[in-house]
Write a structure and sequence with these properties.
Four Helix Bundle (Hemerythrin (Met), subunit A); Isoprenylcysteine carboxyl methyltransferase; Metal_cation-efflux_comp; mainly alpha; 2 strands; membrane
């Protein structure tokens, strides 16, 4: 028998999947624009793995909740939901700040200065912070702790490869613009 919280979790996951499909459409449009401006793509080797990884994540969240009968943990689940919503807010702040320069691939248009506004004022990789938070929190909304652990660890490995490829592709102009900014956790400056 499906519980109310499982039904609500399925609804949340359906919204998340719809959001990802819209992001793919936006990414494809923005990638085409970047290529039209002379953009050069790198990191294709890990990109396919990344797509499969994130697709499996969505299915694993639902599968663990239903196959292993994971419970709704009350306040802990609500905290995970809040974390997932915060992650979405950060993701869309980063996407909105990048505008038509955002896509899910690594495409660099030569000569464009790095975007340093929005959340990029505080961090080099706010979108990846959102992804880390999401992969941890979304499964925990309904107690899918195995999915949270497995995909958080897998994502750490994926991000290690991805960030190195992205920063190498962005080059010296990026390194100079972000030399004083942390990658993931904002620094609290006094004074």
């Amino acid at each position: 028998m499906v519980t109310v919280t499982q039904t609500l979790f399925l609804g949340f996951m359906a919204l998340l999947i719809a959001e990802r499909l819209l992001e793919l459409v936006l990414s494809k449009r923005n990638a085409a624009r970047a290529f039209a401006r002379g953009g050069v793509e790198t990191g294709q080797g890990h990109y396919r793995f990344m797509v499969v990884f994130h697709t499996l994540f969505l299915f694993a969240c639902v599968a663990e909740v239903f196959a292993l009968h994971r419970p709704f943990w009350g306040a802990w689940s609500v905290a995970a939901l809040v974390g997932a919503v915060v992650a979405q807010g950060l993701r869309y702040w980063a996407i909105g700040t990048l505008g038509d320069r955002w896509n899910s691939r690594i495409i660099v248009v030569p000569g464009l200065a790095p975007v340093t506004g929005g959340p990029y004022r505080f961090l080099r990789h706010p979108n990846y912070v959102a992804v880390v938070l999401e992969l941890l929190c979304v499964p925990l909304i309904h107690g899918a702790w195995v999915t949270a652990v497995v995909f958080t660890v897998g994502n750490a490995v994926l991000l290690f490869v991805r960030i190195r490829a992205e920063e190498a592709a962005l080059g010296a102009m990026y390194s100079e613009a972000f030399a004083d900014r942390p990658r993931f956790i904002p620094e609290v400056r006094r004074g």
